Amino acid sequence: MREVAIIGVGMIKWGELWEKSLRDLAVEAALNCLDDATVDRVDAITVGAMSSGLFNAQEHLASVVSDYLGKRFTPAIRVESACASGGLAVKTAYMEVASGLSEYALAIGVEKMTDVDGGEATFALATAADQDYEAFHGITFPGLYAMMANAHMHKYGTTLEQLSQVAVKNHYNGSMNPHAQFPMKVTLEQVMTSTMVADPIRLLHCSPITDGAAAVLLTTEEEAKKLNKPYAVITGIGHATDTIALCQRKDILKLAVVEESAQRALKMAGKTIRDIDFAEVHDCFTIAEIMVMEALGMVEPGQGGPATMNGLTALDGDFPINPSGGLKSKGHPVGATGVAQIVEAVSQLRGKAGQRQIKNARTALTQNMGGSGASSIVHILEARQ
Amino acid sequence: MREVAIIGVGMIKWGELWEKSLRDLAVEAALNCLDDATVDRVDAITVGAMSSGLFNAQEHLASVVSDYLGKRFTPAIRVESACASGGLAVKTAYMEVASGLSEYALAIGVEKMTDVDGGEATFALATAADQDYEAFHGITFPGLYAMMANAHMHKYGTTLEQLSQVAVKNHYNGSMNPHAQFPMKVTLEQVMTSTMVADPIRLLHCSPITDGAAAVLLTTEEEAKKLNKPYAVITGIGHATDTIALCQRKDILKLAVVEESAQRALKMAGKTIRDIDFAEVHDCFTIAEIMVMEALGMVEPGQGGPATMNGLTALDGDFPINPSGGLKSKGHPVGATGVAQIVEAVSQLRGKAGQRQIKNARTALTQNMGGSGASSIVHILEARQ
Q1: Mean local confidence (pLDDT), A193-205
Q2: Do B257 and A61 lie within an 8 Å CB cutoff?
Q3: Which terminus of chain A, N or C, has fewer Cβ atoms within 10 Å?
Q4: pLDDT for position A47
Q5: Mutate which of A3, A23, A63, A377 to disrupt the B interface (most B C-beta within 10 Å)?
């Protein structure tokens, strides 16, 4: 298998972007990425988007993007795995290069969620759950994660304060990220007293509805070396699925899909979790970050909350998590999230993360999740040069 | 790059399948495929579906399918490129194997289109066009292809009879296909006098709305040899995109995306169109089959109609097209179509196509198109053993 490197990353400022269309978002992030790479060759495009059909009445999105990027005739494919669509766009671009079909593959993640109203957005997001056995009966994602949070509190004694500290930490990190949708710091009290959404989950425990895009350019390591500047290599990819419905898991407190995908990625990279310097993980709700920490093997089951309170995952902690601000502060345009995680990881590995730079960051892990844990993709990235 | 073989194919009877759900269709085709392959190992699943969001309010479809197929933890990804989604599911499975990430990859195509009414289906299909500059203004696919048909008739003298003969031929072939939705023969007069849809396109010039699924199992050629039975190898893949909007093409009578994707696939396979024994192509409307013949280089521009009348593309002609009955007779569950084309090609190459078997079929071409020609994927398949 050919070694695959990431030689360029592109972001845009995320938010409620009324003045930009779906295609504008994708193209702007892609152009920023190509500028960053100082390369204009693109042999294949992958586009991660969860539901441009329900949000924007636009399927066939990869052809729209290649067209408006000025890359007529370029092979382009959209990939989807709910909120893990972005991570899978990167995996698919990796396969383009690793298989030898392409030398340069551009992975773009995009979602424009504010073209519909809040109720329609909630409906669209609920299609990531089991339509026949979950969504049809009225459950939505805050409800699914609230059940996990309640069970976690009951079994392990996880507290509202611990759930809230995840938000405090991630907003602190996001306050230093110029692309974040909500780059303001929040206090524990603000989080703990914010509007109730689905008990015990409050507004500031949730990631927001966001318009956004992100892009990364992949090529062979051989080509990357020619550019004579720092780059990252993808040394591990782990991808797994689990039951689509939460109720069909043996243990709803164990994100088995995260454990499985992380173990596969670490094995491929020849690493253990102790070799990882920092991670970007899928904090769609703050309870998710706590459960992902446990599934990754960073802490014992039930210890995610206390470890967060103790500062383990802070920017200056022993294992920083979500230096970008995470989904919580940076925003969560669902299809873009997995690509943006890679953008942050590469920025840190290249020492280009500005005020939120982690010292001596050489090895990163990204974890992108679909639904209530029905899919997960983990990438291991390592700095080169 | 590792050589990739197809060792199993699975179909189900297509039609208006009220008694089956979206997931039932995919799982049934997949199980038929695994039975055919006499292999149960699946390292990765790809699912081609155009719009399970708009048709069934179910995104995250690959996780649904891996779950209900009993393949928990298997990496699964949905891919989409409108009506070319199925072909891209096969390409993505190919990349899983060729890259070395997987040894066995299962590609499934599926669409359940009759869960919504006709107007909603037309709306969903129109999202394959440019939403901002085409669909929003009311154009739908019969209209887009009617414009191409009218221009073709005007420039080349293509006749209504020629457009209709494509349907007569494909229904004749489909009458021998036990999986076809409309396996009845039709006469030229029936086609030419059927209900007007969008002048000059009449009802029997259109592919139908269909529920269906298809599946193929890919592995390395090395593994395929161990099974000691006929299989096919994928020797060429060509994938391209063009402008999403029809109005932005320099020449709407030339399917440049088909020409480009076919040339790429033939080049990779080291073949010319003269080396191909038969083809399955994207006859979403009968004018499309005529234009695809021209774009493939089988005939000169404008000669697709006369060549069809002369029997070139009949089952016993020099270059049979759509022995399966094509989208026209077999049906067109959009995401399933590209996979079903490969199923037919492999069946023919293995000499297992029953009454519609083409003699001495050794090399096949499949061509799967998205929208009005904004994406196309061509596979070249060759018989082995």
Answers
A1: 98
A2: no
A3: C
A4: 98
A5: A63
Q: What is the ipTM of this complex?
A: 0.98
Catalytic (active site) residue B154: no
Q: Which residues of A touch B218 (CB under 8 A)?
A: none
Under the banding of pLDDT at 50, 70 and 90, the label for residue A1 is confident
pLDDT, residue A91, reads 98
CA-derived radius of gyration, chain B: 19
**Catalytic residue positions of A, numbered:** 83, 332
Nearest CA-CA distance, residue B55 and chain A, Å? 10
**Residue in chain B lying closest to A92 (CA):** B92
pLDDT in tens, B343-384: 999 999 999 999 999 999 999 999 999 999 999 999 999 999
d(CA A299, CA A302): 8
Taking CB atoms and an 8 Å limit, are B62 and A375 in contact across chains? Answer: yes
CB contact under 8 A, A60 and B239: no
Residue from the list B44, B57, B240 with its beta carbon closest to the beta carbon of A127: B57
DSSP-derived 3-state class of residue B203: helix
Cα of A240 to nearest chain B Cα, Å: 4
Q: What pTM was estimated for this model as a whole?
A: 0.98
Chain A, chain B: beta-carbon pairs less than 8 Å apart: 209
By percentage, how much of chain A surpasses pLDDT 70? Answer: 100
> Which residues of chain B are within 8 Å of residue A101 when distances are taken between CB atoms?
1, 95, 98, 237
B interface mutation test: which of A23, A56, A59, A258 has the most B CBs within 10 A?
A59
**What does the pLDDT look like over A132-151, one tens digit per residue?**
999 999 999 999 999 999 99
Q: Which residue has the tokens 């009845």?
A: B184
Which chain B residues contact residue A23 at CB under 8 A?
Answer: 132
Which among A6, A78, A67, A8 is positioned nearest to A37, based on CA atoms? A8
Query: Which is it for the CA torsion B55, B59, B64, B65, positive or negative?
Result: positive
To the nearest whole angstrom, how far is the Cα of B180 from the nearest Cα of chain A?
Answer: 26
What whole-number distance in Å separates Cα of residue B310 and Cα of residue B165? 10
Cis before B200? omega within 30: yes
For the question of residue B83 being annotated catalytic, the response is yes
Closest chain A C-alpha to B49 CA, distance in angstroms: 10
Output the pLDDT for position B1.
76
| Chain-chain contact of A54 with B53 (C-beta, under 8 angstroms) | yes
Query: Other C-beta atoms within 10 Å of B293: how many?
Result: 27
Beta bridge mates, A76: A45
| Contacting residues of A for B60, CB less than 8 Å apart | 80-82, 127-129, 244, 370-371, 374-375
Enumerate residue ranges in chain B where pLDDT < 50. Answer: none
In chain B, what are the helix, strand and coil shares in percent, each to the nearest 5? 40, 20, 40
Q: H/E/C letters for each residue in B138-152?
A: CCCHHHHHHHHHHHH
Q: Measuring CA to CA, which residue among B272, B218, B213 is closest to residue B93?
A: B218
Closest-CA residue of chain B to A79: B79
Give the model's pLDDT for residue B179.
98
Domains in chain B, CATH or no CATH each:
4-117+210-225 (3.40.47.10), 130-207+235-384 (3.40.47.10)
Q: Examine the pLDDT at A53 and tell me if it is beyond 90.
A: yes
Handedness of CA B74, B79, B85, B91 (dihedral sign): negative
Question: Which residue in B34, B140, B51 sits closest to B334, CA to CA?
Answer: B51
pLDDT level of residue A75 (50, 70, 90 thresholds): very high
| Per-residue pLDDT, A385 | 82
Rounded Cα–Cα distance for residues B341 and B85 (Å): 12
